[in-house]
Amino acid sequence: MIGFLAHRVAHALLVMLVVSLLAFILGNVVGDPVASILGLDATAADRAALRARLGLNDPLPLRYLAYLGDLLRLRLGNSYGAQRPVLDLFAERLPATLELAFAALLLSVLVGVPLGVYAAARRERRFARALMTVSVVGVSVPSFISGILLIFVFSVMLGWLPSFGRGEVVSLGFWTTGLLTASGLKSLVMPAVALALGQIALVARLVQAEMLGVLRTDYIRFARARGLPDRSIHFSHALRNTLIPIITVSGIQLGYLVAFAVVVEQVFQWPGMGLLFLQALAQTDVPVISAFLMTAGLFFVTINLVVDLLYAAADPRLRIRAMAGQGAA
């Protein structure tokens, strides 16, 4: 198990090295930070002095090595726009994004899994077929369209839910949460639903496809012959054998929801990291842009590593295959 973990960690470090290179390159091609900071009326001397202070005159390889050194020391620099440490900005915005992502993931699993099981167990019924048809629409509709429709119905027409913001939040040490206030919970509903709709459809279709294969196996036929109730067969026996693909999709979903909640945060003006990233793009705030890309990459790599470990715990054959492949290499 230790060798398996070391092998996966080595892969994760290699991926993060590539992500750091891409983040560094992108941070140098999005625009001129000097013009963004000083404006168009600045003198040439002021521009030259600022370029020297920011280290923009150094050769690219030296700047990349300095960038890597700062990352290893968790020195993400100062935001050009806010004139504050990027780490402080991320600490303020990260709770909002994580709460939104986990709420959307919870919705997608709690709703998508039962729908998928029902669609597989009752696949001949019209309602089950309608569910799968609607799921195609759910996967296809962009989240910003869903968000706008939700705002129009529940905020403009009905007036039930707030259309923007995070509501009232409570500070718990370094963490701020809206889950402990009524306005915070109401503000979370529409962004979480808009972000989760496509994922619900994806999970439902995946569970249905996996369940259809499992329901045709011999041990399910034997369970039916023994007279076990359908609920026990579907949820205790068949669903258990679809856990690995569900774990895969749920893990990838969480990384996707954290990294790509940008559009939903913009639609609902949700004060998370995605909205901060869009504001940084508009201001050519290179430290924030690079740090966001590194953070998103770290989320994906960490989640994939956890998913690999859950794989190994759920199916020891995966550990044996991985170590066999490593030994052959």
Task: Write up what this structure looks like.
This protein is mainly alpha-helical. The chain has a domain at 94-247. The chain has 15 helices and 2 strands. The protein has a two-stranded antiparallel sheet. The protein is globular, with a radius of gyration of 24 Å. The protein starts with a helix and ends with a helix. The mean pLDDT is 79.
Brief sketch in words of this structure:
The chain is mostly helical. The chain contains 15 helices and 2 strands.
Would you spell out the secondary-structure blueprint of this structure?
Blueprint: H1 2-27, H2 33-38, H3 44-54, H4 60-72, H5 86-121, H6 126-140, H7 143-157, E1 170-172, E2 175-177, H8 182-215, H9 218-225, H10 230-238, H11 243-259, H12 262-268, H13 273-283, H14 286-314, H15 316-328
Antiparallel strand pairs: 1-2
Please give the count of helices: 15
| Spatial strand sequence of the major β-sheet | 1-2
The major pleated sheet works out as: 2 strands, antiparallel
Beginning-to-end CA distance, first to last residue:
18 Å
SSE succession: HHHHHHHEEHHHHHHHH
- Shape descriptor reads globular
Approximate helicity band:
over 70%
How would you describe this structure in keywords?
15 helices, two-stranded antiparallel sheet, 329 residues
